[in-house]
Design a protein that fits this description.
The protein is an alpha/beta fold. Helices cover 28% and strands 21% of the residues. It is built from 7 helices and 9 strands. It binds ligand LNRAV4D5 and adenine. It is found in: Cytoplasm; Nucleus.
C-alpha cells in the first residue's frame, strides 16, 4: 500500500496525458482503473494504470474525457494533476494536437517545445493556491522540465525511426483560450511574436504540474497550419481530424517504447531533480493567518510542505 495515499495501492512514476484523438493506450496491458476524488474534484477521466512490455507501469488519463466531453476551458486540470500526484507520479509526458505556425512544421510532425506564450483569458483556475489563505509564486521561466525534454529528444527520435515523422525541438507554443480557432490576423500576430505552434491545452496544465513538483513535458503533434497562410483555407476541426488518428497511433507507439526508460530515469532521480523540491522557496512563509483547512487541502499535492 502506498504510504501517503490511502486509496492507492500502486505507485506509478510516469504519467501520460492524452489529448484530442488519444483517449487510451490500448497497445499496453490494462492493469486497473482508479478514479481519485481530489480536493479539486474528479479528473477528466478515470486513470488507467497499464503495463508496458517489460513490466513498467504507466498512468494514463484522457484530458478531454474518454468521450471528449470537456472543452479546453473546462478541463479539470487541477484534479488531473492532483490525481496523478496521489498515485506517486513524478513526471508527466503530455500529448497535444497543435496547429503549426511554421511552414517547416508539417501536419503529422512531432515537436518538443521549450517555451509557452499564454493567451488564455483568466477563466481557468491556474493554481492550487487559488482560493486558499496561502500564497505561492512558482518559478516558470522554463515552463517545461528541461532535463526531461532533453531526455525525451533522443528517445522520441529513435521511437519515430522508420515512420516518416519529423521531430522538432526548441519551439514556442502559444496557448489560446478557444474554443473557436484564431482569426487570420491573430495567427499572423503569433508568428510575429515568435510562436511556432498553437493549442488550447498546455496551460494551466504545465503551471499546475510545476506547483505540484511534477516534471512535465509536452509532445506536440501537428495537425494543421492554423490560419496564417495567405492562399490556404483557415483551419477547421475536420482538417484537424484528418491527422488525429495517425498521430494518436504514433503517440501510442512512442509511449510504449519510451516508458521503461522514463520510469528508470524518474526512479534514479536526475531528470526530475530541477522540479522536485522546487516549491520550497516559492511558498510565502508560514503565518498564523494561514488556515489549517487550506494547509490540509494543499498537503494532497505538496505533502512535504503541508502535512502536519
Ligand atoms: C480538436 S482541435 C482543438 C483542440 O485540440 C487540442 O487538444 P489537445 O491539446 O487536448 O490535444 C487543442 O489544444 C484543442 O483543445
Ligand atoms: N490551429 C489550432 N489552434 C488551436 N488549437 C489547435 N489544436 C490543433 N490545431 C489547433
Amino acid at each position: 500500500m502506498c504510504q501517503r495515499c490511502a486509496h492507492n495501492a500502486w505507485t506509478v512514476l510516469v504519467g501520460v496525458i492524452g489529448g484530442s484523438g488519444l483517449y487510451n493506450l490500448d497497445n499496453l496491458t490494462l492493469i486497473k482503473q482508479v478514479n481519485p476524488d481530489t480536493p479539486w474534484g474528479k479528473p477528466s477521466s478515470p486513470i488507467t494504470i497499464a503495463k508496458a512490455p517489460g513490466g513498467t507501469l504507466v498512468a494514463f488519463l484522457a484530458r478531454h474525457g474518454v468521450g471528449h466531453t470537456f472543452p479546453p476551458s473546462a478541463v479539470p486540470a487541477r484534479a488531473n494533476i492532483a490525481a496523478f500526484k496521489s498515485l506517486g507520479v513524478r513526471l508527466i509526458v503530455a500529448f497535444s494536437a497543435v496547429g503549426s505556425l511554421r511552414e517547416e512544421i508539417k501536419p503529422g510532425d512531432f515537436v518538443l517545445p521549450d517555451q509557452i506564450i499564454d493567451r488564455t483569458k483568466g477563466v481557468r483556475p491556474a493554481s492550487f493556491f487559488e482560493g486558499t489563505s496561502i500564497v505561492a509564486h512558482a518559478q516558470f521561466g522554463d515552463p517545461f522540465a528541461n532535463k526531461l525534454v532533453a531526455f525525451l529528444e533522443g528517445r522520441v527520435r529513435s521511437a519515430l525511426e522508420g515512420r516518416d515523422v519529423a521531430l522538432h525541438t526548441g519551439k514556442t507554443i502559444v496557448c489560446m483560450e478557444g474554443p473557436q480557432f484564431s482569426t487570420r490576423a491573430e495567427s499572423k500576430m503569433y508568428r510575429a511574436w515568435g510562436g511556432d505552434l498553437i493549442n488550447m491545452s498546455v496551460l494551466p496544465e504545465a503551471k499546475l504540474a510545476r506547483e505540484a513538483e511534477i516534471s512535465y513535458a509536452l509532445i506536440a503533434t501537428a495537425t494543421d497550419y492554423d490560419s496564417w497562410r495567405e492562399n490556404s483555407e483557415s483551419v477547421t476541426a475536420s482538417e484537424v481530424f484528418k491527422t488525429l488518428k495517425t498521430n494518436a497511433e504514433t503517440s501510442r507507439h512512442v509511449t510504449e517504447l519510451i516508458v521503461a526508460d522514463l520510469h528508470d530515469a524518474a526512479e534514479n532521480g536526475d531528470i526530475i531533480s530541477e522540479e522536485a523540491g522546487s516549491m520550497k522557496f516559492s511558498i510565502m512563509p508560514r503565518s498564523e493567518k494561514q488556515k489549517d483547512e487550506d494547509r490540509e487541502k494543499l498537503s494532497y499535492v505538496l505533502p512535504t510542505y503541508f502535512s502536519s
